[in-house]
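Think of the structure tokens as a kind of shorthand, similar to the way a musician reads notation: each symbol stands for something richer, in this case the local conformation of the backbone. In the example below we present two proteins back to back. Begin with the first one, reading the sequence and then the tokens, and try to describe in your own words what changes along the chain.
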Amino acid sequence: MEKKKMTLYGMIFSICFFLIVSFFFSTHTVDYANETETSEEMNVPTKKSTNSAKDLEPKKQESPEQKVFYDKIEQTMTETAKSFKGDVGMTYVDLNTGKQISVNGTKEFYSASTIKVPLAMMIADKVQAGSLKWDDQLTFNEKEDYEEGTGIIINNIEPTYSVRTLQEYSITYSDNIAKNMLYGTFGGDVAAKKALYAHFLQKETEWDDAKFTSEDAAKILTILYEEKASNQEYQTIYDYMKRTVFHERMDTPTTSGKVAHKIGSYAGFLHDIGILETEHPFILTVFTNGQTDAGISFISMITDQLWAIQSSEYPKK
């Protein structure tokens, strides 16, 4: 009798063991580690290009004419990059087709004042979300906000400034004090930089050494360009970029009045990121690290070269 009981218990144990093993090795088992990661990411505010839906569609094959055209764009970028004595990274985006071409597009550079564009976009987002108002007055804090360099506030510092004024100054005049005061709406520069990198690029950064790649900058400008038609505050940022007081780099005699751009300068790091209004508009982001002011003339040169190709050789439909 005892022997029979053991056999019955053994059968029950075997069945339970089989069911447990089947559950854990089933192809329908949920990967709880990945699920948790996804859930956490859902709580992080992110900004994605509005043409992301197009990415799901089958990509149209380039016509022979388009291939020749894009090959020339790439060759021009590659050959011009070789002429620069130093580090360079640049990205071109055809805003008609979404075609992107990069030379050292994932190489990181200190962002300098190019970071003011996504900062302005996040400020606009905060206003639209209701957590900030354009007429809110921010108080100047010398310890936190004062910074030498570009801008006009430094010439006559007032006790307070409206968010709208700081937004305009940070882009039009590349005002460093305005930038720092806007950082304060996030709780300081550390929190602000972490927030905007997560928001637009879905990545982290060392807050005291914020870096961009030319492809990062192109992604941000693509969002700005695509959303400005339905987002008046993004259109305003775009207009500030067109009215900037810095008529250099991408703002050449050829492109004058037809480029919305934002320069960045720090030591040998000389950059410019812009949207160029040819008949077939395109984005160009150029980051350099070289000797003295070499990056300034280099950026103007590649801008004019690509403008000429885009204007005169763009494939007909």
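Once you have a description of the first chain, move to the second and do the same.
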Amino acid sequence: MPDVDRAHAWLLTVDGAPQSYVDLDAPTHLEFEYVRRLAHVIDTAAVPDRPLDVTHLGGGALTLPRYVAATRPGSRQDVVEADHGLLELVTERLPLPQGSGITVHATDARGWLEAAEPDSADVLIADVFGGSRVPAHLTSVAYARSADRVLRTGGLYAANLADGAPFGFLRSQLATFSEVFAELALIAEPSVLRGRRFGNAVLVASHAPIDVEALARRAAGDVFPARVEYGVSLRRFTGDAKPVRDEDAVASPEPPEGAFSIG
């Protein structure tokens, strides 16, 4: 069950695992490293302060939408979250500021994408987990094409994924999105990429060139530095993985016990 700590800063946990962290007085503070990496993608999507139209698949405690509202005033944001109970809890106990430009939708992420207006988002963020796994229906080529349809020309897609060696899931996602998008990058800690531990990786996709240099600088400057893989090295990492079709789609792997628990 969801739980929210009643303190100056708020930690949302689901079944004992940390799900979101929010400081209502400091919305630009991002505690979790993977959220910082998703924010790096947004930060490099346009010049500073320019408003963006952002779609978030997966809501949590609305940490990233609050960040965008603070750093890019005037942005329009849609947050799609299938967990109605979670949305009610968050909006009741962690209310959004007036004029935030954030609209929440209690519905399934893929269904919402398939019905959304085409060319309606500058950035599309996917951070959807059923428990601790990415749902199967959000891993296929058909899903990637729905994401592409919603993005404007030159828009950016970024997804929080989780995997460990031998990276069957992560590699299949790279192969899947390479079938739809011209440009890909991957942000992850070196220890994850080397297969030393199970962890998060942020997949970035676009039809326009991705500013990998800016992403790399930001990722390298984090408390837990990450690396940005792209081009030849990313194709080498992907190897002979095949794109995922709806009929073959499976959820991401179950994390090892304690992989994302609070210490």
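Compare your description with these statements about the second chain. Confidence is low (pLDDT under 50) at residues 1-7.
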